[in-house]
Amino acid sequence: MPEIAEAARIVHFLKTHLVGKRIKTAKAVDDGNVFGKVGTTGTAVADALKGKMVVSAGSQGKYFWLVLGSAPHLVMHFGMTGWMHIRGMRTGYTNYYNKLKADELDAWPPKFWKFQFETDGNPKLEVAFTDPRRFGRVRLIDCPGAAIRKHSPLVENGPDPVVDAETTFTEEYFLTTMHKRHMPIKALLLDQAFISGIGNWVGDEVLFHARLHPEQYCDDFSEAQMKKLYQSIRYVCQTAVDLLGDSDRFPADWLFQHRWGKGSKNSVAQLPNGEKLAFLTVGGRTSCFAPALQKKTGKVAPGIKEEPVVIKEEKARNGTTVPAQKKGSAKTAAAAESVAVPEKQAGDKRKRVSAKKESPDDEDEKVAVRPKKGKTVKAAANPRTTPGRKASTAAPSTLSTETELETKMPAASTGRRRSARLSLH
């Protein structure tokens, strides 16, 4: 699932190539999920884009936006598999292009597009928003461009640890919130009302650097541990954003470089010093950590089972076997979720699948508040969770600005990880 670094990455491309240009034509499909779930339509989005100058682009956590010459403006979220493409550029992940067939690499518009537009002038720029699994969201916000963050959904989300590093995301804010809450620390980090932009792999990375156990209650750490965690968040998020999510350039000592496994099939992933990695499910999400380094120092949520991280192989779309991790091939933040399940465009007949519901975007990580300190809260252990496989059900959310929960399409490759190095072109 795209996190803070992916939003920063696409904003980089939009600022570099799109800002300052006028949109000549635009069109969209009327997807009831991507547009309808947030109160608009593809037609309305296309109409809002036509003839408008793109004034600026920005991001807060996992959300990003385009400020147009006049309201309404576009606020977007990638969900699980959304992305924005610019014709002739590789804005996405290396593995995304590796999985395409030869005749799809330069096809335009790209598969699963939801809206697309082109600018006037010479040369013109062609841009498209795609989303195979349709968990992304595209909103129209009717407000002054400078006030986007004061309106829903951004106003309900917490500070961005990079954008707001010198203003609202202070150490005082961080420590005060941790003292007030009583929940596993990994679940708190995923709460977008607390911090914007931290998803699964970023949460694991900051806990690894702070040497904190993911299931320990957030208010049961020492002051020194809390301060160290704050600094780890600042460091990991800033570094990932500065590198635009390009995992090939991530530091060698990051958990990210080893959590996906290097070595033979069905071996246990480990750090270079031999420390084994394991996973457990916290807050409805699978957490990777190093048990020997991230020891419990306080109370933890009961009933959470720890399993080793087992390296497996995955199948590329062309049917060839891809090693789980080749030397020098790190995975990136956007690839932390299951491989996307293709789905037809809106309006086509789709197969209805009965499955457990969970919230697909950043709001799936807003977990229930524990208002009374000291109460024992059981974290749901998923008996079906096995090594190399993700838990299938997320924790229910009480902080979501979108209360509906959506049916996830079961992916045949659930639990596998996509190799997704980012390349800048």
Automatic annotation (TrEMBL):
Residues 311-425 are annotated as: Disordered. Signal peptide: none annotated. Residues 324-344 have a biased composition (Low complexity). InterPro entries: FPG_cat (IPR012319), FPG_N (IPR035937), H2TH_FPG (IPR015886), Ribosomal_uS13-like_H2TH (IPR010979). Keywords: DNA damage, DNA repair, DNA-binding, Glycosidase, Hydrolase, Lyase, Multifunctional enzyme. Residues 415-425 have a biased composition (Basic residues). CDD domains: PF_Nei_N. It catalyses: Hydrolysis of DNA containing ring-opened 7-methylguanine residues, releasing 2,6-diamino-4-hydroxy-5-(N-methyl)formamidopyrimidine. Residues 2-136 form the Formamidopyrimidine-DNA glycosylase catalytic domain. Pfam families: Fapy_DNA_glyco, H2TH. This is Formamidopyrimidine-DNA glycosylase catalytic domain-containing protein. Belongs to the FPG family.
